[in-house]
Amino acid sequence: MLRPVAHAGATVALAGAAVSGYLVAAPTSAPQTGAVDELSLRSERVDAVSAASSAAEDASAHAELVAFKAGTPSRLAAQAAATAAAAAEAARLEAERAAAAERAARDAQRAAALANAQANPKAAAQALVAQRGWNDAQFQCLVRLWTKESNWNYRATNRSSGAYGIPQSLPGSKMASAGADWRTNPVTQITWGLGYIAGRYGTPCGAWAHSQSYNWY
């Protein structure tokens, strides 16, 4: 009867020892208070730095956006002005090019007309006679008259009187009323000569008749 009691006491003693051992070992497995505080501080610092960095980035992005929006109208205006200036310059250059091309074409036409008139002044005279409404008979009288006077040489000069050109204008400078190029342009000389004939004799045949009678017209 005594053995069970002793056994029960031993059991109680073992249980107490186990509890006591647990109580002693428990502190070694729990985290230390100082370590917990350090980890918390580090975490808070990391969070604070991250939050500050994010806020700075947001502020910088916002500032850039505001600056962009504020500057956009001025940039667009500058771009529009530059585009307009470039278009105006291109239009000016194109106008100058077209004007130069037109001048060149006119100069080429005048040069060709002058060369043709110098090579064949009679053809030019025939066209001008027709413009005045004179017929071919009048043109033939003109051919005879100016063949006698200058042989249709636009540089012909009378050594004694100084008469000059196809119509033998005296002085030659009278023909300047028909054009400044009277010295070298048969058309200018013919235009002046036909005007002189019309005003003094009425027609080339009238001038030719006078030349036959008096040897001048």
Could you give the topology of this structure?
Blueprint: H1 2-29, H2 33-119, H3 121-131, H4 136-149, H5 186-200, H6 204-214
Describe this protein's structure.
Helices cover 76% and strands 0% of the residues. The protein has 217 residues and is an all-alpha fold. Helix 2 packs across helix 3, helix 3 packs across helix 4 (136-149) and helix 4 (136-149) runs parallel beside helix 6. The protein is rod-shaped.
Quote the beta fraction.
under 5%
Gross morphology is: rod-shaped
**Helix and strand element order:** HHHHHH
Portion in helices:
over 70%
Strand elements, count: 0
**Number of helical segments?**
6
User: Residue-averaged pLDDT, rounded?
Assistant: 81
Backbone structural class: mainly alpha
Radius of gyration, in Å, reads: 60 Å
Biggest beta sheet summary:
none
Low-confidence stretches: 1-31
Ends apart, CA distance between termini:
187 Å
Summarize the structure.
The chain has 6 helices and no strands. It has 217 residues and is mainly α. Mean pLDDT is 81; it is low at 1-31.
Keywords for this structure?
disordered N terminus, 217 residues, single chain, 0% strand, mainly alpha, 6 helices
